Amino acid sequence: MNPEEILAVLRIDNLDEVEDALESELFEIRKSILAKPLLRLTLKSKLARLNVLAKIAENQQLFREPPVFQFVYDGSKIESALSLWESYMQARSQWKMVFTQTQTPIGLTAVLEEGVKMELEFASKFPVSDWTEEEPVFGTEPDPMLLQNGLKKAAEKGWITFSDLEKNKNGLEKDLLLALKRLSLLPKYLQ
User: Looking at beta carbons, which pairs linking 91-100 to residues 24 or more positions away fall under 8 Å?
Assistant: First the structure.
């Protein structure tokens, strides 16, 4: 990438401003991504922009690459819906911390890919079922506390597994059923 292209892409006047412009763009990308669910479709343009920014950073010899975050999780032994949800929230919290601390375009791309893998791993544990007739919205996430509290109330009634929840879905709140349906259908939007 030549200097004129770099100036045009970053909308700056001087090559001395490249590092600051890159840091500013990375901040805005992180902020935007954290405000929305991790869906392959919504990340497409951000990943393309990060690729361009990575080429600029490489051209200008900016940033050293940190070790890449790798998501490791084995949820095969978790049978409780509540335990799975709590593990998911813990993993997402860890992922968000790593994501916000990553300072390079290549590093952010890698962490985003790991985030999508993490989401897919967890979402695939939520069985597709006829939770509700309503269609969930995928552009916004359900309130995590709604799920947490709904699953706790279900556990207090002895409805521990997804099978228990499905059998007793008439005793669950509508919002919880909609959130469960969204999670069960989410893998389609992550691939």
Answer: 91/118, 91/122, 92/118, 95/69, 95/71, 96/34, 98/69, 99/30, 99/33, 99/34, 100/30, 100/34
